[in-house]
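User: I'm putting together notes for a lab meeting next week and I want to include a structural view of one of the chains we've been expressing. I don't have a solved structure, so I'd like a prediction I can at least talk through. The sequence is below, exactly as it appears in our construct file.
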Amino acid sequence: MAPPSIMFVEEFDPKRKSKARAHAAKERYRKLRQEIYSKTSAKNIVGNRLSIPDRRLPSPIDLGSGFSDPFASYALVLSHDEHRLVYHYATLIPSLFRKYWQHHVGNIILATDLFQLYTREPASLRAMLFEAACHRAILCDLPYPIEYENLAIHEIVHNLECPTVGTILATGLLANIKRRSNQPFLIHWRAAQQMITNHGGLLSFRYDPLLFTKHTWNAIALSGSSHGLPDEPDDGEAYEKLHDLIVKRKAKTLKILPTSQAEVERQDDSIRVKAFKNQTELKRLLKYISESIADYEEAPSVKESCRMAIVIFLTSAMEDTGDFAPATKAYLESVTKHLDRKTDDSALSPEHLLWSLIRLSFLYPESNKCIEFWVSAVDMTAAWKRLRVADRQAMQVSLWASLELPEMVEGSVKLALTRKVPISTPWSLGERTVPKDCFCELLWFTIQV
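Assistant: Thanks for the context. Below is the predicted structure for the 449-residue chain, given as structure tokens.
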């Protein structure tokens, strides 16, 4: 094909210049199409009509359609069916997400973040394609995509000697896929956690916000009573940290409680009190509603785990910086405004809020402290999961009361923690059920577990 001739546009009027440039671009694409069609052999001519060949230059409409990689941004050269799976993952699955949340009109930051993570390296991209193939097979009643599973496992095994971050992501995603399919998954989950440990633990991802958010969210929401990180403190030490936090928060809360009506009015005007006392989105998502204690023991749900982790993070941060410190005020103002605007999916549920808060922690001046608080929250949440239902509820009530701040000292009964409870039998990861509608990783944030 001869190179296209250069077309110069000389106009001084901006509007005429823009129109002339658009016309030049249109003519250039028209000439390119004519050159392609002119080389078509006679066998492609049916009657007086030209049979357009399948392979043609991508037009501007094709860019970003999901069936091509015009910018060579993927880590692998994909086949046509694999491009369809990319389109399925990036478009169809988020559409099901919107169908579940019918009143949600903001951005789905989870879909964007996960897609950016998985397309970085070949191993994670293969795992993403495998998940999309599984989801497509369930929706369309197709056979199990064993070929995509083999490709993903082959890519993981190829990098086992020196696992990259993509290999860690792929192994964790493979574990979640197996878990949702009621297949043995613990070997993959433990392998992923061991890779994280060998990489340096959660803190080793502190310079990559998306990676840190992904692994921290998994450790809090999808783990059992153990976060699976052998180099971290054991659950006994984590429980001591959680109990000490509750005791310290009780003491500090009693000191700052108002003793007169004037102090009550002064504190009520602060964002520190408004965020948890008024009918805000933050209060709706985090407030624990006391329920009757069941006669049987059960593992905490994903929603409860995420809610408790956020409460632990907030109380730890306030214990360190102070309840009415400028840093606390700035943080609560930014979070409440972000939730009230509803520009994304943060306000949908505690699961979504947890992802957003971890992700947004990197934007604050005290980001290093925020990251350390999240890692500590992972340990304490894992210890909290080991407790009996009644003990878990007592801790939730106590920590929420320290955030809500009783109006007077007389109303501080909820702050009390009756006794130091022993650690009970841990819940294993396999005991946490997966709902039938949970066909893909994105729906972990949607379906109630």
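A couple of points you could mention at the meeting. The longest helix spans residues 14-38. The two ends are 58 Å apart (CA to CA).

User: Perfect, that's what I needed.
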